[in-house]
Amino acid sequence: MSKIIRFAKFVKDIKKTRDFPRVVNYDITSRCNLKCEHCYWHKTNEAHEDLPDEIWLKTFKDHVKRGANAAYLTGGEPTLKPKLIEAADKIFPEMAIVSNGINQISKSIQRRIMISIDGPKEIHNKIRGLDIFDKVVGNIKNDKRVILTPTLSTTNYKYIEDLVRIARESGVDGITFSTYTSHQGIDDPYYLSGEKLDWTIKELLRVYRENKDIVFMTPKIIKSWRDKNYYRKCYFKSSGFVAYDANLKIKKPCTLGAKVKCETCGCIVPVFASALKKMDLKSWFLLDKFFPSEYSKNF
Ligand SMILES: C[S@@+](CC[C@H](N)C(=O)[O-])C[C@H]1O[C@@H](n2cnc3c(N)ncnc32)[C@H](O)[C@@H]1O
């Protein structure tokens, strides 16, 4: 019953007209402790100096007052600013942290944590450019706040099943996938298209069917990567979502920066939003698994 009430409230809430986006993505730092082979951030980041925490906190409070409800703290590597994460935890009703998992996040932060693991040890270390796999897997052991969030590219698309096994063996809550989005276009060597994309979709559908308890995807979401229609109605374009860089400059059209080729978008955000808009019930139920009520706060 509580799930139905939460669902109804959510539908009402996203339909509300507001003068400020409901979901905000913040690059809370202009620093990162990795240089990953596929990462948009190193290609697009224009922010240099980190802002003092007081400016962030004032901004967070102002945004919540104006209607922001959910914050994604990312970067760069957000765990380089642990005090800011702790302070943000006391401001946003909904919050999630997107991290590479090298640093642990205090257990006092009872929020969803998305950890980027991109493959089994050798592949992950190759993509991430450092020998960090064992450390990350050790850090997330049995942490139910965690969902693994691999980005599938031509480097790692063959390792979907291994990634699900890693999620299961590390005892995290689940795993969801994005596909690589390009700043170059369809000729980008990391971009999944043609037979490789078809194979990825087929493999994800198979692995999903065998691991529904842990794979946080739905057939509708997976299949939508085929025609990519969702990018036209992305919430970042319709002002439902907004992204700020580490100097609090708005990034357009989205977190991936100005030169992103939207037609190559494989981001889970518009994919998921599009399935919700089409009233795909499986995706609605999945939303509750992604963001269970125990990670929401009323202030
Ligand atoms: C930019 S990182 C920032 C947070 C953190 N440092 C981390 O590694 O998760 C956020 C996520 O974006 C993903 N990402 C980077 N470049 C991408 C691209 N071109 N297309 C899709 N996802 C990308 C990363 O793999 C990571 O999961």
Can you characterise this structure?
This protein has helices spanning 2-15, 40-44, 53-66, 82-88, 121-128, 133-140, 160-170, 194-210, 219-223, 268-277, 281-290; strands at residues 23-27, 70-74, 94-99, 112-115, 146-148, 151-152, 174-175, 178-179, 241-244, 250-251. The longest helix is centred in the C-terminal third of the chain and has 17 residues, at 194-210. With 299 residues, it is α/β, with parallel strands linked by helices. The protein has one domain (2-8, 18-294): Aldolase class I (TIM Barrel), CATH 3.20.20.70. The chain is globular. Helix 3 (53-66) runs parallel beside helix 4. Strands 7-5-4-3-2-1-9-10 form an eight-stranded mixed beta sheet, covered by helices on one side. A two-stranded parallel sheet has the order 6-8. The site of S-adenosylmethionine has 17 residues, from helix 2 and strand 3. S-adenosylmethionine binds next to helix 2 and strand 3.
Q: Compute the number of strand runs.
A: 10
Please give the domain count: 1
CATH topology: the name is TIM Barrel
Named CATH architecture: Alpha-Beta Barrel
Low-confidence stretches: none
H/E topology pattern: HEHHEHEEHHEEHEEHHEEHH
Radius of gyration: 18 Å
Mean pLDDT: 93
Strand content: 5-15%
Span between termini: 23 Å
- Fourth CATH level, the homologous superfamily: Aldolase class I
Question: How many helices?
Answer: 11
Q: Give the strand order, joined by hyphens, for the main sheet.
A: 7-5-4-3-2-1-9-10
Q: Determine the structural class based on helices, strands and strand pairing.
A: alpha/beta
Q: Characterize the largest beta sheet: strand count, sense, and whether it forms a barrel.
A: 8 strands, mixed
As a percent range, the share of helical residues equals 25-40%
Based on Cα principal axes, name the global outline.
globular
Small molecules in complex: S-adenosylmethionine
Instruction: Report the CATH C-level class.
Output: Alpha Beta
